[in-house]
Amino acid sequence: MRMRPYILSFLILKLAVKISAQSYFNYINYSSEWEMLSGGSDVANNYVSHFKYYINGDTTIGTHSYFKLYRMGVDSIIPIDSGSVSANSVNYYVGALREDATKKFYFIYQFQSSESILFDFNLAQGMYLQDNKANSGCNDPQLMVQSYDTVYLGAILLKRFETNNITQSIIEGIGSGGGLIEPGSMCLHYESYSTLICYKTGYARIIINSNCPCTLPDTGSNCQAEYSYTSDGVLYSFTNLSTADDSIINFFWDFNDGTESTIYDPIHAYPIPVNYFACLYIQTSNGCQSYFCDTVVVTPSGINEYVNNKPLTISPNPFSTQTILQTDKILKRATLTIYDVYGQQVKQISPITIGAGQTITLQRENLPGGLYFIRLTQGNKTLSVNKLIIADN
User: How far is the C-alpha of 158 from the C-alpha of 299, rounded, in Å?
Assistant: First the structure.
């Protein structure tokens, strides 16, 4: 069963909350582009620049990795009285840009050796903006977040913060209405000098200033999250079928029972027999993001059939150091696999060849205390699935 359209917006919001709580997904990637328009004048000329910032490679400076930021566009000089307009195409390196897991943008300007904080997106209503490059020269008295709303970058939810500077806003993970690396881009007087027209990453684009035409295409890399699953009645094996034009660099699973996983093809044990709406989220190196959800049917008959079967007895259970496994079957090249409650394989014994009634000694080794599932297989057949409890002394 594929995701129904009417729950799409709810699902995106639900997953966005989980993403921020459980994992950090980068704002900046190799497909990030910021389209800008800036201008100024003196007694003789008007100066207009229409350009974009874009990422072209990366570099390591000190202990941090940075994206290399370039500026490409046209700088024009327009005489006020008379004379011809001169236009100069430019494409050059402007500095090194990075973000960290605390939602801050840092930048090392060309010909400088130390980094500056461009933006800190950890904002909420009523908070004052700390000093950074975006509000350089206009943060005394401090700017304060008066309200915020939500904007979409494709399927990505971003917060847009409004301050007591009514002409500029801050868009989470993008910059301000006045620009990206421009010092003082949050200042009231700066509105007439520079404006961020639009931003693009991967296949998603957002218009920041609708009064200016955006030339960044709203096309790019494509990706699609998808999965399938199989079950032996207790353990559910998920197969990641996601596809993308570029590399998938981030993904996680929401099993809809309060647990998540970042394993590529996880195995999961559901606690009770009900239907679950399990979702997979992916992000590619070029910024494409996709979700896929499906209903996972967990039946009580399957759980009872395997957990209560008797081909394998475990004693003692719970145990602290070792336990004895015994089966009434003849085993030939069988496999014993132990999974934690998240479905991750933590131990495997193979091959096992023993006669009926013989025993296997299972050592705890470095396994932490808790609930596990133990599965005995031979060939392609599951002979037994049992609960296993390891207790700390």
Answer: 39
Q: What is the pLDDT of residue 122?
A: 92
Domains in the chain, number: 3
Residue 65 lies in a domain: yes
Could you give the CA distance from residue 59 to residue 108 in angstroms, rounded to a whole number? 12
Cross-strand partners of 239: 228
Q: Of 278-282, 338-342, 371-375, which range is least confident? A: 338-342
Residues 6+ apart with CB under 8 A from 43: 80
In one-letter notation, the amino acid at residue 198 is C
Nearest to 138 by CA among 188, 179, 174, 178: 188
Residue ending a domain, among 183, 207, 231, is 207
What is the tens place of the pLDDT at every residue in 90-113? Answer: 999 999 999 998 899 999 999 998
Q: What is the CA radius of gyration of the chain?
A: 28
For residue 337, the SS3 value is strand
Same domain, 51 and 196: yes
In three-state secondary structure terms, 14 is helix
Together in a domain, 203 and 274: no
Q: Is the same domain home to 85 and 44? A: yes
Lowest mean pLDDT segment, chosen from 69-78, 102-111, 337-346: 337-346
Cβ(195)–Cβ(36) under 8 Å?
Answer: yes
Asked if 231 contacts 267 with a C-beta cutoff of 8 angstroms, the reply is no
d(CA 374, CA 385): 6
Domain region containing 113: 32-207
132 in Cβ contact with 186 (< 8 Å): no
Interatomic CA distance for residues 269 and 231, integer angstroms? 10
Contacts of 152 (CB under 8 A, 6+ apart): 158, 206
Cα separation, 318 vs 127, in Å, equals: 51
Residue given tokens 């005394």 in the structure block: 140
List, as one string, the DSSP characters of 39-87.
Answer: EEE-SSEEEEEEEEEEEEEEEEETTEEEEEEEEEEEEEEEESSSS--EE
Q: Give me the residue label for tokens 């974009």.
A: 52
